[in-house]
Design brief:
Shape: elongated
Oligomer: single chain
Order of helices and strands: EHHEEEEEHHEH
Structural class: alpha+beta
Helix content: 40-55%
Distance between the termini: 11 Å
Radius of gyration: 20 Å
Largest sheet: 4 strands, antiparallel
Number of helices: 5
Strand content: 15-25%
Number of domains: 2
């Protein structure tokens, strides 16, 4: 079966980048009209914060589109999920995928088989255990895939993953 690559939404990335540029311009304007130290601090703070955010957005956009490193890669063996680091989920370890909501955000919950779930909790660091416990409490799954900013809807992704899971 062919490999499926899912990227961040192009329009969302461009709007976030344009928003960060507008805030940087606002910071420059604040510096231009500054009358006291407060305006100076706010201007530079705005420029640094939104400038760094814009650089990170631009880098992730270029990394995905030019270097062909998608946010999600689905193949016959499992899923590769790129965030701050790359996570690999094997279909052999998964019992099912489900769409869950937390506030206004949709997630595709990864329900591991009972033995695998216990082993992942034991193998995790102290921060990993805290994160997994928090996820288990909030969405009733140790791991999940956020579908807030990708180019595919939560139900479509969940259906695709469950179809691949049946074939594995």
């Amino acid at each position: 079966m062919e490999e499926v690559k899912i990227y961040h939404s192009l329009w969302r990335m461009l709007l976030l980048f344009l928003g960060s540029i507008l805030f940087v311009c606002g910071g420059v304007y604040i510096l231009h009209i500054h009358k006291n130290v407060y305006h100076l601090v706010v201007g530079w703070g705005t420029i640094v914060f939104f400038g760094c955010g814009g650089i990170v957005l631009l880098w992730s956009f270029l990394k995905e589109r030019l270097f062909d490193q998608p946010h999600l890669t689905i193949n016959d063996e499992g899923i590769s999920y790129r965030g701050m680091k790359t996570w690999h989920v094997r279909f052999a370890d998964v019992a099912s995928f489900e769409v869950r909501r937390l506030g206004d955000n949709n997630f595709v919950a990864i329900n591991y088989k009972p033995g695998v779930e216990r082993q992942k909790m034991e193998d995790a660091s102290i921060f990993g255990r805290l994160f997994r416990s928090m996820n288990k409490h909030l969405i009733n799954a140790q791991e999940s895939i956020s579908v807030v900013d990708i180019s595919m809807k939560a139900n479509e992704l969940c259906h695709l993953l469950n179809e691949r899971l049946k074939r594995a």
